[in-house]
């Protein structure tokens, strides 16, 4: 995976620790199939250079991903994306659950009925997919 393979597309926010944002980026790429099970990933130094982050931050992200079993590193071999089906299945569920939780927290005080909320989500989701397919993505209000 080189820098042209999505490594330079991370825009770090000022709220969350950078290493957690790197982990989330990996999870998103795994969930969308842009990183495949067993695929070799850049070394910690290569990742740090590509992302323009401190090597210690890259090391921390990789260590955490190893603990979460997202990546596997054996000896001096390059790190690879896990092939553990259970871990791979849980990644997408975790990301969707996190996004839904953030949405619920943001609208909790509005007392929106579930049916109305689902209609809004469906409409926005379909509009987003349509604009993505036509290449006319717009930022949400």
UniProtKB/TrEMBL annotation:
It comes from the Bacteria. Coiled coil: none annotated. The keyword Transcription applies. Keywords: DNA-binding, Transcription, Transcription regulation. SMART domains: HTH_GNTR. One of its GO terms (molecular function) is DNA-binding transcription factor activity. InterPro entries: Tscrpt_reg_HTH_GntR, WH-like_DNA-bd_sf, WH_DNA-bd_sf. Residues 16-84 form the HTH gntR-type domain. PANTHER family: HTH-TYPE TRANSCRIPTIONAL REPRESSOR YTRA (PTHR38445). This is GntR family transcriptional regulator. It comes from Cohnella zeiphila.
């Amino acid at each position: 995976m080189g820098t042209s393979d999505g490594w330079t597309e991370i825009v770090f926010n000022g709220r969350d620790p950078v290493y957690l944002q790197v982990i989330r980026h990996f999870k998103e790429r795994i969930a969308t199939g842009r990183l495949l099970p067993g695929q070799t990933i850049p070394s910690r130094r290569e990742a740090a250079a590509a992302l323009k982050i401190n090597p210690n931050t890259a090391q921390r992200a990789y260590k955490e991903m190893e603990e979460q079993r997202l990546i596997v590193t054996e000896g001096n071999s390059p790190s690879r994306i896990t092939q553990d089906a259970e871990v791979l299945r849980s990644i997408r569920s975790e990301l969707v659950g996190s996004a839904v939780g953030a949405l619920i927290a943001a609208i909790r005080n509005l007392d929106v009925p579930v049916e109305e909320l689902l209609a809004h989500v469906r409409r926005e989701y379909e509009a987003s997919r349509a604009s993505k397919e036509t290449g006319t993505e717009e930022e949400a209000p």
